[in-house]
Amino acid sequence: MVTQFGIHIKVKDINRSLEFYRAFHLKPDFAYGDNTFRTKFREIQTAPEKYRGVIFNISGALLEIAEGHIAVKPKVFRETIKSSKISAMLHVKSVKTIVNICKERGFKIAAQPRVFPWGTKEVVVKDPDGFILVFIEKLSKN
Hints:
The chain is an alpha/beta fold and 142 residues long.
């Protein structure tokens, strides 16, 4: 049976993607790559690998960004994601905070914040490769 869930995002520029995800206060849990890349992660476990990647643990779910993979052709990592068929939902305390981070850093907001009848406020953001992230704030019932 499944014991954990994760998403692996193939990225064009690992440093740009790392900066993007760290801006939202995601903390790296594990990193791999060459010696130079791994020196950025003295506080976590790392491993040598021919390509670079970082795994974030978000409340038990894993989000991995990497510039290579043994089972994926290198050209895939250079592609821009053109479809929003698959997206990630990240529950946050404040959508306003997410919007402010995007404005300060120049990140692309794909859909402005909106309140939904099921009691959430959501904003849609694209990462540097075009992957869709839906940040969701649960509104309190009044």
